[in-house]
């Protein structure tokens, strides 16, 4: 069936709209040891307009051919990996971007990259897009489809908080506009926010209207090492209760810091201790930045912080952020899986402490880091002897503990395919049943990203 419709697809997008290098579109950043094997019998289609997407989906729906939407390929849950022969819909050529300074919004086609958006906004004094949800090569459509988070969620929220409107194409080929350049809208059920985070299983996002805000002030980046993990993590809720709302509060095992140093070639300001916090604060001027930094230092020292190092210059702060951001790159070759659970902030110490103890008991190496300010803990499970037996034991324990603490198994990476069974076992059965019914209503022929999130 697939070969029969390639000619029809070519009529829609032209020869230049069909990729020859199919292998470049089969996998995302999901760790190799847990990612599914991709189906190689696919056609990679690169539309330039929503109307082309509409025609492709209408054809696929009529022929019941699976369609997997692909953005920048930076996902970590196998969401962009085709599991069966079909169409891979790459959004890379849909990259038009408009900044509307009167309405304080950016109108982005789905293929606009985060880097492209940030660079364009930088040209306009007084405006900003504060979230920084991951790799700057990620595309806006994918960031919205996965409701991406990132380090700055503590103060500025996640992608969902910035989406005002969307253009989407339904599996039937119908083009639907939701929301717009408005702040308030309670007209009927909120379909737009249902589609945010749906991981390409309900509709194809082709255009997004993003809210922009006035440019914030300057920043300092604090590095705070501790001898004990418990002391580092218990400092986080104390900072938030004090009335200080940092731009970011990141927690890192010292081994994770070393991995970031190794891949960047840059130096962290302190080598010792068991755990470190990296705290980014904002202020209108230097006096406010100094005051906030001093208040955090006092709180940290009460919890046995070894010292407090302050990065002031743009280069110092960029180097620290690079080390934190590239931890995964530094451990990619030895990583079995990367968990990204969400727990209540006050439960982080209990969660990390118990997970470390259980990891020692089963003989598996796990590094912890993540967005401590919003309860999002990342756990690198590293390859050891017999990891195939030890890894499932640790994951099951960790996800069971998450559920007990009132959290969830994924905070920003999504369910995709690698966490689907875990979602079934941790969410209420009725919730899963409702998700399946929603999937059937939007996509009765199950052509969009089949096998991801829920099975129908």
From TrEMBL:
Keywords: FAD, Flavoprotein, Oxidoreductase. PROSITE patterns: FAD_PCMH. Residues 34-215 form the FAD-binding PCMH-type domain. Coiled coil: none annotated. SUPFAM superfamilies: FAD-binding/transporter-associated domain-like (SSF56176), FAD-linked oxidases, C-terminal domain (SSF55103). InterPro entries: FAD-bd_oxidored_4_C, FAD-bd_PCMH, FAD-bd_PCMH-like_sf, FAD-bd_PCMH_sub2, FAD-linked_Oxase-like_C, FAD-linked_OxidoTrans_Type4, Oxid_FAD_bind_N, Vanillyl_alc_oxidase_C-sub2. Pfam families: FAD-oxidase_C, FAD_binding_4. GO terms for molecular function: FAD binding; oxidoreductase activity. It comes from the Archaea. Its cofactor is FAD. This is FAD linked oxidase domain protein. It comes from Ferroglobus placidus (strain DSM 10642 / AEDII12DO).
